[in-house]
Amino acid sequence: MSPPRSVLSRYRPALDGLAWRRAPEGFSGAEVWRGDDAAGTPLFALKCWPAGFSASRLAGIHRRLWQARHLAFVPRVLPTSAGETLVADNDRLWDVTAWMPGTPRESPSRAELESACAAIAQLHAAWRADESREPAPGVVNRLRILGEWLERPSRSRRIPDCPDELREVLRQSIEVVEAAAPAAQAILQPWAGVPLSVQMCVRDLRGDHVLLTRELVTGIIDFGAAARDFPGVDLARYLGDVAGSDESRFRSGLNAYRAAGGVLADAGDLVRVLDRSGVVCSLIGWVVRVHSENGLKHCNPLAIRGRVEALIARVAREV
What pTM was computed for the model? Predict the structure, then answer.
């Protein structure tokens, strides 16, 4: 299926003559197409944002990308022929950015991992102008999720109606979370209310959102969750994905972040706490999402199972 002409026409002549290929679906409900030139070189990413995503929020993300435009790994937003950065069509929002080269690394080398953390530091530096001191939303949100789970155990233990491919993995999720949630809450609780450095962050900086060409970061993608938070939330998400329980690799990433100008002040230990509590909250999130009426509407059950199984393994091993 090709993108609608009503959207492509808003970008004439920049998108004329491109061949469009649908990118694999993720978990957010967004749809992405890759625009290739006649030689097959990818030039642009056309994104249809999830239903209900607000225009003001998307415009804010575009402003943040513009703020970091000096970084080659940050995608440039292509304006329409009228100079706008987003298009509203059929109750959905659309935008176009440069297609970023490179590939993600599930298990990056130490040099690749350090390069990625240095790039994260550079991105945070570009967004540091509006830094403030306040309790970190990443801490507050995790404690809320854990508290709500522990306060409603009877509802939480029920396996929701779901595809057969997910029933067993959700049963395991509930068992693992029941055992791990109190410990996750306990390690995070000392940070409740502690004023920390808070600024714009990506907030969903998974390993597959960092693209590398050899040992160079050539793309950081997917800013849909971007919001103000403690910068350590981005490191926790990325390093949790690619370093996992390997403390040596985790520390190498933190050291590379600091060496590139990243600032964690005296809250460096919080990064690992955010990682370990975050994987528990992610499991809770999947159980809650499946409970919701439209939680699986845009998702492949087998892809969900793979993601949840990986989370179960980490929680069972570390928390």
Answer: 0.93
Q: Which residue blocks in the chain are alpha helix, DSSP H?
A: 5-8, 55-67, 110-126, 137-151, 153-157, 164-188, 232-242, 247-259, 269-291, 301-318
Question: So where are the chain's domains?
Answer: 5-98, 110-318
Is residue 91 left, alpha or beta, with left meaning phi > 0 and alpha meaning psi from -120 to 50? left
pLDDT digits (tens, 9 = 90+) for 109-131: 999 999 999 999 999 999 999 99
Dihedral sign from CA coordinates of 115, 233, 264, 65: positive
Please give the DSSP secondary-structure letter assigned to residue 237: H
How many CA atoms does the CB half-sphere of 27 hold within 13 Å?
A: 18
Domain with residues 5-98, CATH architecture: 2-Layer Sandwich (3.30)
CATH of domain 110-318: 3.90.1200.10
Q: Is the dihedral of CA 268, 272, 278, 280 positive or negative?
A: negative
Can you tell me the distance from the alpha carbon of 74 to that of 122, in angstroms, rounded to the nearest whole number? 11
C-alpha span between 33 and 47 (Å, rounded): 6
Using 70 as the pLDDT threshold, list the residues of the chain that sit under it.
Answer: 153-161, 291-299, 319
